[in-house]
Amino acid sequence: MFEVQSGVVPKAQKVILYGPEGIGKSSLAAKFPNPVFIDTEGSTDKLEVNRMKKPTSWTELIQMLDWIKNQRQFSSVIIDTADWAQRLAEQEVCQQHGVQSIADIGYGNGYVYMKDKFGNFLDKMQDMADSGINAVLTAHSQITKFEDPGEMGAYDRYELKLAKRSNADVAAMAKEWADTVLFLNYRVISVKADEAGRKFKAQGGQRVMHTTHRPAWDAKNRDSLPEEIALDYSSIAHIIPDMIQAAPQSQIPINNPTTVVENEPILEKNDNPPSQETINNVEQSLSSVPPEYLPRELRDLMISNKVTEDE
Fold this sequence. Notes:
Layout: E1 14-19, H1 25-29, E2 35-38, E3 50-52, H2 58-71, E4 76-80, H3 82-97, H4 109-130, E5 134-147, E6 154-160, E7 164-165, E8 168-169, H5 170-177, E9 180-192, E10 200-210, E11 228-230, H6 243-246, H7 276-287, H8 296-305
Parallel strand pairs: 1-5, 1-9, 2-3, 2-4, 4-5
Antiparallel strand pairs: 5-6, 7-8, 9-10, 10-11
Helix pairs in contact: 2-4, 3-4, 4-5
């Protein structure tokens, strides 16, 4: 009784774009199909893009995601940036526990609570992708010292600027969530600084994207991209679909106050006025219809199980 499918399944992409400040993360994300930005950092003012106002709380950020998913007006949602979204999660945890700093919650539990919230956020972004909307996180990079047991000594590497603790590794969780992780940076070339070749200096400035993991950075892709590509949207355009545009109009649910809800009782036209008992039954039935602002999946469950909003 199981169905077997074959071939490539087209779906929206989950992408992380990270790199140093000013490299062009937001500008690249703005080229995604029909994007809308949730500007947690407040840095897209100079971009000609659709944007939501900067969320002032974690709850508002989650509500924005629900609204975008239900409206289905955009093909891509951009969280700019993920590390500033993490700050909102930390603030939410602090408010819930009445502390000034997340570190004030004993035994490192504050970071565990924050990781749980960020996990719920990634679940929301997963739902976004499952509904056909590309889910994109931009993030800053940070340079950390890395000790490789298989190598002699330590070396510097670029990582996501997200929490990385033994009990709350948000960076690892985000990388696992993504289909594609692209590291944006400048290509640096070492040139001789003296005739003897004893001194070198760095030159360069060409912006590139790294698509595969290396000791010096995190990256991955599932589309056989070259290891290094130009920092230009045309380099990745072929792997980013526009599922909303491609979907037949009849399949796109539209929030409409006049939409008839399934199982909603409808009175047939009758010359004779309805009895008071009929009116009471209709009013009672209408009161059990879930309101439009609730998520569609929840409304369907409420209707099928005859659960009222108060319940």
